[in-house]
Design a protein that fits this description.
With 669 residues, the chain is α+β, with helices and mostly antiparallel strands. Among the domains are: 101 residues, OB fold (Dihydrolipoamide Acetyltransferase, E2P); 103 residues, OB fold (Dihydrolipoamide Acetyltransferase, E2P), CATH 2.40.50; 123 residues, OB fold (Dihydrolipoamide Acetyltransferase, E2P), CATH 2.40.50; 123 residues, OB fold (Dihydrolipoamide Acetyltransferase, E2P). It is 16% helix and 36% strand. The chain has twelve helices and 39 strands. Strands 11, 12, 13, 14, 15, 16, 17 and 18 form an eight-stranded mixed β-sheet that branches. A five-stranded mixed beta barrel has the order 1-2-3-5-4. α10 packs across α11. The longest helix has 17 residues. It is elongated, with a radius of gyration of 36 Å. The chain starts with 8 loop residues before the first helix and ends with a helix. Heterotrimer of RPA1, RPA2 and RPA3 (canonical replication protein A complex). Keywords: DNA damage, DNA recombination, DNA repair, DNA replication, DNA-binding, Metal-binding, Nucleus, Zinc, Zinc-finger. GO terms for molecular function: damaged DNA binding; single-stranded telomeric DNA binding; zinc ion binding.
C-alpha cells in the first residue's frame, strides 16, 4: 500500500507549528545516556530529516517494537526546542501507523537541504492561482467548478479530478464532495470529487495574539502539559497541579556557605507527581506563598534528575525553581485534580520489601505507645512513638512516628485508642526498616491521614467491624529478619530441643504459647547510649567516665544522662517442658509493662518491695512468644540461644479459633 508522508512536515515543525500532527518515518533510533535512559530518533517527511527525542514515558514503544527503523508514526503531541544551537523535536505523544515500511524518498538533513526548494509551498500555489484568492469555494448547483493545479490526479472516465488543499468547501445543491483521506483517491463515477491532503496552513499564533502588533519572543503564555510529559529538552512549559505535601524549611552549611531549602510535591489531573525544590532567595519568595491542597500554575523552572535517596515520587525528574520562575494560585478549585494519590500495598508485602523502600499502607490502629524522648547523635532531642497497624492481609506492623508526628497525629491516635476507638490510618510515604524485622517509619515527606474519606478506608473499617478485630494476625516487626522464613511455625517447648531447632546455619523461628515461671532480677537491664546514628539509636553499653558523665566508646562522646534498656533472662514453660530465653528492650517492655529506667530507679533508689511485686505479678501469665533460635559460640562451647522478639498476651478468643481451625484441618485429612 502506497504511503504518503505529510509534505513539508519537518520545515513546518521547525517554524513553530505544534498542531500539524504529521505522518513521518523513523530512519534511525539511538539510545542515549546511562543514568537516564532516553531514545533519539531520526525522522523524515521523505524530503528532510530531523532529530527527535522521545519523552521517557514513550520508551516502552521502542522496547516493545512498536517504534523501530522504518516505522510510519504520527506525531500527536510535540514541541520543537533549541538545544546547543540545534533544533530538536521533543515527542510527547505519538501513534504508530505502520510498524515496518521501506524507506520513502531520499531525505536529507535540514542543515544540508536547499534553502527554499525542499517542497513547493502549497499555500503559495493556491494564492497565486487566477481567480482563487481564498481557501474557500462555494457550489450553487453546478457539477464542477474551476480546475486548480493539483498535487496528483487520476481519471478513469474522462472527467477531471481536482486534488487541492482546501480549508472549507460548501456545496448547496451540486454534486461536489469533499473528502479528508490523505493517501490518495480515485473517481469512478460522473461526479467531481475534491480530496484534501494532510498539508496544513503554516502555523499561526493563537487568536488572542493576532492583530495586536509584533509579539516578542516567549511573550505568549507557555502551553500547559502533563507532569509526566516534562523533560529537560523543553524550552517553555507550564503545569497545573495541586500541592499534596510541603516539607519543612531546612538550613544547611557546606563549602559554599550557609543556605536554606524546602520542597513540595505536586499532583496533576493525569496522576503525574513531581517534587519541586527551592533554595535560598527563591525560598523567601515561595515558602509562605504555597499551601498544601491548593492548585497552582507553575512555569519557568529547570528540570534536573531526581535524587532518589531523598525523593520517593515515581518521576525521574524534579523541578528547581529559579528567580524567573512563576507560581500562580488558581483562583477556582479544579475538581479533576485529586486531593491526594495513594498506592496502597498490603502489610504482608512489606515483609519482602527492600530496606529504605517507600510504601503507602492503610490499616487499623490497634495500639499506641507513649511518646518518649530520644537524643540524636548531633545532641538534639526528638520524640519517638510506636504504634501498631493491622489490615486484612492477616499481618500487623509497627509504625514509628518521629518528631512532630508524635505530638500531632500520634497524640490524637493515642487518645482515640485509649477511649476504645480503633481509627483507620492511611500512611503516605512510610519508609521501610529491616532492623529486627520489618517496620515502617515516618520521614519528612510522610503524611498521615486519620479516618480518611476514601474507599480503601471504608473497606478496612467494614472488615474490622465485621470480625477483623478478632482475627488472629502475625507481626512482621521484630520477628522476621532477612533470610528468615516467611511464617514461623507453632511449636511446643520440647519440640525446640527434640527437632534440633537453631542448629543450622540460619536461625529458626517459632511461635510458642507458654507461661513465665521465673525472671532473673540481678541484671535485668543495662546502661545504654542514647545517641542516634542515622535513624537508629546507638544502644551500646556505656560506662561512667572520670567526671561522672556517661561515655560511649562507639560514638566517642560523653553525656549527662544515659538510657536504660532491658536484658531479661526469663524461664518459660508449657505442658511439655521449660527453657531459658532472653528478652531485649521492646519485648521486655511488653512483658513487664514499664520502661527499664523506671524499674531501675525503683529497685536501686526508692522502693525495692514495689519492684519485687511488679516482677511477681508477671509470673504464670500466658503469652504468645515469637522466638528466634540460633546456635552461638560461648568461649569454646556452642549453645543454642533463644531470643524473644515479640511477646503478646494470649487472646483466648483468637487462640480458640486457631485451635478449632487445627481440628478442622486434622479432620479433613
Amino acid at each position: 500500500m502506497p504511503v504518503n508522508l505529510t509534505p513539508n512536515a519537518i520545515a513546518t515543525i521547525n517554524d513553530g507549528d505544534v498542531n500539524l500532527k504529521p505522518l513521518v518515518q523513523v530512519l534511525d533510533i539511538k539510545q542515549m545516556g546511562s543514568a537516564q535512559e532516553r531514545f533519539r530518533l531520526l525522522v523524515s517527511d521523505s524530503v528532510l530529516t530531523q532529530h527527535a527525542m522521545l519523552g521517557t514515558q514513550l520508551n516502552d514503544r521502542v522496547k516493545t517494537g512498536l517504534v523501530k527503523k522504518g516505522s510510519i508514526i504520527q506525531l500527536i503531541d510535540y514541541i520543537c526546542s533549541q538545544v546547543q544551537k540545534r533544533k530538536i523535536i521533543v515527542v510527547l505523544n505519538l501513534e504508530t501507523i505502520i510498524p515496518d515500511c521501506e524507506i520513502i524518498g531520499n531525505p536529507k538533513m535540514v542543515s544540508d537541504a536547499p534553502a527554499q526548494n525542499a517542497l513547493p509551498n502549497t499555500n503559495s500555489m493556491l494564492l497565486s492561482t487566477v481567480g482563487y484568492n481564498n481557501l474557500s469555494s462555494q457550489s450553487h448547483g453546478s457539477n464542477m467548478h474551476s480546475i486548480r493545479p493539483s498535487l496528483s490526479s487520476q481519471s478513469h472516465d474522462g472527467k477531471m479530478h481536482s486534488f487541492r488543499p482546501t480549508s472549507s468547501t460548501q456545496n448547496q445543491g451540486g454534486k461536489l464532495h469533499t473528502f479528508q483521506p490523505a493517501l490518495g483517491a480515485q473517481n469512478y463515477g460522473n461526479d467531481v470529487q475534491s480530496f484534501r491532503p494532510t498539508v496544513q496552513p503554516p502555523y499561526q499564533p493563537p487568536p488572542s495574539y493576532r492583530n495586536h502588533g509584533a509579539v516578542m519572543k516567549n511573550e505568549a503564555p507557555a502551553r500547559i502539559i502533563p507532569i509526566n510529559a516534562l523533560n529537560p529538552y523543553q524550552g517553555r512549559w507550564a503545569i497545573k497541579a495541586r500541592i499534596t505535601a510541603k516539607g519543612d524549611l531546612r538550613r544547611y552549611n557546606n563549602a559554599r556557605g550557609d543556605g536554606k531549602v524546602f520542597s513540595f510535591d505536586l499532583l496533576d489531573s493525569d496522576g503525574g507527581e513531581i517534587r519541586v525544590t527551592c533554595f535560598n532567595a527563591v525560598v523567601d519568595r515561595f515558602y509562605d506563598a504555597v499551601e498544601v491542597g491548593k492548585v497552582y500554575l507553575i512555569s519557568k523552572g529547570s528540570l534536573k534528575p531526581a535524587q532518589k535517596n531523598f525523593n520517593h515520587l515515581k518521576n525521574d525528574w524534579e523541578i528547581f525553581l529559579e528567580a524567573t520562575s512563576t507560581v500562580d494560585l488558581c483562583p477556582e478549585e479544579d475538581g479533576s485534580i485529586p486531593q491526594q494519590q495513594f498506592s496502597f500495598k498490603p502489610i504482608s508485602e512489606i515483609e519482602s520489601a527492600e530496606n529504605n523502600s517507600i510504601f503507602d499502607v492503610i490499616g487499623v490502629v490497634i495500639s499506641v505507645n507513649p511518646s518518649v524522648p530520644i537524643l540524636r547523635k548531633n545532641g538534639m532531642e526528638t520524640q519517638r512513638r510506636i504504634l501498631n497497624l493491622k489490615d486484612g492481609s492477616g499481618w500487623t506492623i509497627e509504625l514509628t512516628l518521629w518528631g512532630d508526628f508524635c505530638n500531632k497525629e500520634g497524640q490524637k491516635l493515642q487518645e482515640m485508642v485509649g477511649s476504645g476507638f480503633f481509627p483507620i490510618l492511611a500512611v503516605k510515604a512510610g519508609k521501610v526498616s529491616d532492623f529486627n524485622g520489618k517496620s515502617l517509619g515516618t520521614i519528612s515527606s510522610t503524611q498521615l491521614f486519620i479516618n480518611p474519606d476514601i474507599p480503601e478506608a471504608h473497606a478496612v473499617k467494614d472488615w474490622f467491624d465485621r470480625g477483623g478485630c478478632d482475627v488472629a494476625s502475625m507481626s512482621i516487626s521484630r520477628d522476621i529478619v532477612q533470610g528468615g522464613p516467611k511464617n514461623e511455625a507453632r511449636k511446643t517447648v520440647s519440640q525446640i530441643k527434640h527437632e534440633g531447632l537453631g542448629r543450622s546455619d540460619k536461625p529458626d523461628w517459632a511461635t510458642v504459647r507458654a507461661s513465665i515461671s521465673f525472671i532473673k532480677t540481678d541484671t535485668f537491664c543495662y546502661t545504654a547510649c542514647p545517641l542516634m546514628i542515622g535513624d537508629r539509636q546507638c544502644n551500646k553499653k556505656v560506662t561512667r567516665s572520670g567526671n561522672s558523665r556517661w561515655q560511649c566508646d562507639r560514638c566517642n562522646q560523653e553525656f549527662d544522662e544515659c538510657d536504660y534498656r532491658y536484658l531479661l533472662q526469663i524461664q518459660i514453660q508449657d505442658h511439655t517442658g521449660l527453657t531459658w530465653v532472653t528478652a531485649f528492650q521492646e519485648s521486655g517492655e511488653e512483658i513487664l509493662g514499664y520502661p527499664a529506667k523506671e524499674l531501675y530507679l525503683l529497685k536501686y533508689e526508692s522502693n525495692d518491695t514495689r519492684f519485687a511485686d511488679i516482677i511477681r505479678s508477671r509470673l504464670f501469665y500466658q503469652y504468645l512468644f515469637r522466638l528466634k533460635i540460633k546456635e552461638e559460640m560461648y568461649g569454646d562451647e556452642q549453645r543454642v540461644k533463644i531470643t524473644i522478639f515479640k511477646a503478646d498476651k494470649v487472646s483466648y478468643s483468637s487462640e480458640s479459633r486457631y485451635m478449632l481451625d487445627l481440628i478442622s484441618k486434622v479432620r479433613a485429612h
